[in-house]
Design brief:
Layout: H1 2-11, E1 16-19, E2 28-33, H2 39-49, E3 54-57, H3 59-65, H4 70-75, E4 96-102, H5 111-124, H6 130-137, E5 138-148, H7 160-170, E6 176-181, E7 183-184, E8 189-190, H8 193-203, E9 207-209, H9 210-219
Parallel strand pairs: 1-9, 3-5
Antiparallel strand pairs: 1-2, 2-6, 3-6, 4-5, 7-8
Helix pairs in contact: 2-5
Length: 220
């Protein structure tokens, strides 16, 4: 079962490929548990996926840190309201919050810098005074966007943000994940599920279909 092998892969600090659905973004993301991310993970996501490398976090964790969705932050600012995205073309509101760098990074964009930002974000989940540690350890604007999973996870929204956090929780890991969309340099579009399946097979990476995850969440 791809779900079970995916959970084991995440526990080992390895990648999982996650397909949302043909009726949604129709994209495959490379996913790793934030607590295990190394510069090698970041380099591989950059080279083999090529989309935007983000940190997904649990909704409760985001609340503890005092984080808000970017569309809410912008709504309170002087930004022209016509520019603020409501629903994206695929039917959901984006889950973006602020972009951060860990304070010990230099530019923030190198594989080492982004790996440090991701690792340290995961570590904060397990400390006592999370907000104080977050404020003292991170700077914004930075080079890694934070994505806030919806309350209720898959019951509320079936995006890569929610699916990756749901997977991390199933694996008993910190609900902080690194995710990156897989792009196709031949078509200049998102990598097709067929090509993603081929990549998964060649590299021994479990590929989880969002439908399978949704069915599992309904039963469990």
């Amino acid at each position: 079962m791809s779900l079970e092998s995916g959970i084991q892969s995440l526990k080992r600090g390895e990648f999982v490929l996650l397909f949302d659905s043909a009726g949604r973004e129709n994209e495959v993301d490379m996913v790793a548990a934030g607590e295990f991310v190394t510069p090698e993970h970041v380099a591989r996501m950059r080279q083999h996926a090529g989309g935007l490398l983000c940190i997904s976090i649990d909704n409760d964790f985001a609340s503890e840190l005092g984080l808000h969705y970017m569309h809410d932050i912008l709504a309170e600012s002087s930004t022209n309201k016509e520019m603020i995205m409501g629903l994206a073309p695929y039917g959901d509101r984006p889950t973006f919050s602020i972009y951060v760098n860990h304070y010990q990074t230099y530019t923030g964009i190198t594989d080492k810098d982004r790996a440090l930002t991701i690792q340290e974000m995961a570590k904060i989940h397990n400390v006592d005074n999370k907000k104080k540690k977050f404020v003292s350890s991170f700077k914004t604007p930075g080079h890694v966007p934070l994505l806030i999973a919806s309350k209720g996870l898959l019951e509320t929204r079936q995006g890569h943000t929610e699916m990756s956090i749901y997977l991390a929780k199933l694996a008993g890991l910190t609900p902080v994940t690194a995710i990156c969309e897989m792009m196709d340099a031949e078509t200049y579009t998102a990598l097709s599920i067929e090509k993603a399946e081929k990549y998964a097979k060649q590299n021994g990476i479990p590929l989880i279909d969002g439908k399978e995850l949704l069915e599992y969440s309904k039963v469990n």
